[in-house]
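Study this:
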Amino acid sequence: MIGFGLISLSLFTSERLSPIIERARTEDAAASVLTEAVLAFAKENGFEQLNLEVRSDNARAIRLYEKYGFRKLCTFPDFFKIDGESIDFDLMNLELTSAGD
């Protein structure tokens, strides 16, 4: 799996996902395409902000999210364990509306 986007208030239909998947021909492009699709959906449907959790050691994903304007709010240390190793997670946020909206 390359990644996924989840918006809990609405589901993407297959008609909406097909062109997104078609554009995502490489792993590098897929992450951007999926992120752009989630952002477009959120903006089109009046979302005011988006929050996400990402492993603190996933520098590639963090750079991608920062590229789209997400900012780190906090770190959850020892969020869970994998094979006995504690994993930290960062909470990131993107405001979709400006103060005047």
Residues 55 and 89 are 4 Å apart (CA to CA). The longest helix spans residues 27-44.
